[in-house]
Amino acid sequence: MTDFWPWISLAGLGAFHGANPAMGWLFAVALGLHRQSVRVVWLSLVPIAIGHAASIAMVLIMLAAFGAVVDLRNLQFVTALAILGVAGYLGFYGHRHRVRVGMRTGMTGLALWSFLVATSHGAGLMLVPAVLNLCLADHAGIVGMTNSLPVSLAAISVHTVAMLAVTAAVALIVFGWLGLQALRSAWINFDRLWTIALGATGLILLIG
Amino acid sequence: MTTWRPDPSFYPSPRMAAKAPKETIAYVAAFDPDRQRPDAIAVIDVDPASASYSQIVGQVDMPNVGDELHHFGWNACSSCLCPNAPHPHVERRYLVVPGLRSSRLHIVDTKPDPRNPRIVRVIGPSEIADRANYSRLHTIHCGPEGIYVNALADRDGNAPGGIFLLDHDSFDVLGQWEMDRGPQRLAYDFWWHLGHDTMITSEWGTPDTFENGLVPEVLLGSNYGRKLHFWDLHKRKHLQEIDFGEEHQLVFELRPAHDPTKAYGFVGCVISLKDLSASIWTWYRDGDQWAAKKVIEIPAEPADPDLLPPVLKDFKAVAPLVTDIDLSMDDRFLYVSCWGTGDMIQYDVSDPLAPKETGRIRIGGIVSRATHPKAANGALNGGPQMVEISRDGKRIYFTNSLYGAIDPQFYPDGIDGWMVKLDAGDNGGISFDENFFVDWPKGHRPHQVRLEGGDCSSDSYCYP
């Protein structure tokens, strides 16, 4: 199958989001430490994953809606511009997510926080090229609701499962074994890496 | 510009911060009470192994006169590691230095040469007034939404005072913080419990009641600040106020527990109208409300009226005047500055509702004029005032001046500036470092101390 790589990239992006402390595992660890409970760490992962999945679902629903009426070349062009726009914004203004969700938040607040963080990162947009690829493998030139819905659902699932698995693994390792000291050295600038990745993807899409 | 790794001075928890390397320099705000020469941030060598230990080794002068530098803070701190507002790749390199009188805000870069910091931006009072409608800038804390600056008055010098936000990269004024201030009018200090999404603010007065000194009629009329305000930190909404009552005046410095799981803290009340005593109160969570209880009362000391300034003569007693407090990083020891009597008192506050005195030294003081082993002069004036504790809790630094217009009300013969350092025992007890005494150069008086890399009143933490 030629569409092996899109699945890998969907999972890889999920793993990247899962590894990024700012995307959720750190919040799960913090809540676990505050309530002194590993169960809270586990429970927190659910709304974090739901919020993240909702954010990318929102983008893919928009893709399907536009895809039904817009020519593929145009869609790819618009997607490339959108990704470059987000990269430019993040590069210029930085990742300032002043999301007003506190440390006493409940599970709904945590899901909302995860949704807003993923959305402001442009997480869903990065999935578009892979989903476009998958849709095109079977239905040349058309991205409509009927053919894109199952592919999109599968894409969201693969991305979210990968994200959740890495989030859970890191959260539990830090909570139970590594400790917070890891934050001081291992928290590399994911935001900058993400901005670079967005920029590169946008350019490739534009040229390709 | 962001970095690849978190700033090495950030620590997730207070326990980890207490193991940070020792500070080698301290920054001290110094002001000219006569407003004739520029105020400055002085750099003090606090490395005992250095040949210039206990000396001023650098200084940055402000570009104007009459700022009245008072309190200042860092652009970024350990709260950048918080999970709900993570931005750990900013650098802690800028000191944000407000003028309490001028309402001017100076951004001082300490990075290229920590001993020779330089001013990189000055934000004028009109910019702050236009964007946030505030003036008389007082305290700086870095936190979840950037840099928080509080102000004691609106742009015209009236109530309400409050808080505005500053971007921690660009230093642009982002606007007023409060969305619903409820009954809050007066401002003085502020800090928060990050783990409980709660901000606390305290009260002083409007500029017309302090810029020419304390006004006896206002004080005796119980019209200076006496309340604590509790806010939702994220909704920026006033939740509750606690009135300490008519007897208590000047409810000032706030020191919440550093451990973010703990929901209590301490506030100093400068003076009681009943008997001139000073007091420390503990606020704490009581069900779904906040409560406060007086836990320490420091009595006034009888004194010969001939030795007292006019403001105290009729009372025949020297008031302790608790003007600053500071809490060690392990939340175990509270340090209390008695600017009137000259005492620095250390309390074990392991049980925050039942403190125990564990150490006391005396230096300066309105009547006692106690000296220091290294002081050339036998009688020191001023008294323990702004106090700062090293992150490991072993070194305590303080200076002796309160505020230009108030200093002569209590020390009419003037204040000669000094800065001293105490050593603290592991289980309590304090003593002078006999080798550390900064005889402050004439013309300036030292005020707040900030330590390289952070100290016990700079950072806040999200993890226990």
Main attributes?
heterodimer, A: 208 residues, mainly alpha, 9 helices, B: 464 residues, mainly beta
The biggest beta sheet of chain A, please?
Answer: none
Helix fraction bin of chain B: under 10%
Q: Which stretches of chain B are low in confidence, meaning pLDDT under 50 for 5 or more residues running?
A: none
- DSSP helical segment count of chain A: 9
InterPro entries (chain B): Se-bd (IPR008826)
Protein name (chain B): Selenium-binding family protein
Pfam families (chain B): SBP56
Family (chain B): Belongs to the selenium-binding protein family.
Walkthrough of the structure:
Chain B: InterPro entries: Se-bd. Chain B: Belongs to the selenium-binding protein family. Chain B: This is Selenium-binding family protein. Chain A has nine helices and no strands. In chain A, helix 1 (4-19) packs antiparallel against helix 6 and helix 3 crosses helix 5. Chain A has helices spanning 4-19, 25-35, 38-67, 72-93, 107-121, 128-138, 145-178, 181-186, 190-207. Chain A has one domain (2-207). In chain B, strand 10 and strand 11 (173-176) form a beta hairpin. The model of chain B has no long low-confidence stretch (mean pLDDT 97). At the A-B interface, helix 2 and helix 8 of A face loops of B.
Blueprint of the fold:
The complex is a heterodimer of chains A (208) and B (464).
Chain A: H1 4-19, H2 25-35, H3 38-67, H4 72-93, H5 107-121, H6 128-138, H7 145-178, H8 181-186, H9 190-207
Helix pairs in contact in A: 1-6, 1-7, 2-3, 2-7, 3-5, 3-7, 4-9, 6-7
Chain B: H1 14-17, E1 25-31, E2 38-45, E3 56-65, E4 73-74, E5 94-98, E6 105-109, E7 118-123, H2 125-132, E8 134-143, E9 146-154, E10 162-166, E11 173-176, E12 190-193, E13 198-201, H3 216-220, E14 227-232, E15 237-243, E16 248-256, E17 264-272, E18 278-286, E19 289-298, E20 301-302, H4 310-313, E21 317-318, E22 322-327, E23 333-338, E24 343-348, E25 356-362, E26 387-389, E27 395-399, H5 407-410, E28 418-424, E29 430-439, E30 445-451
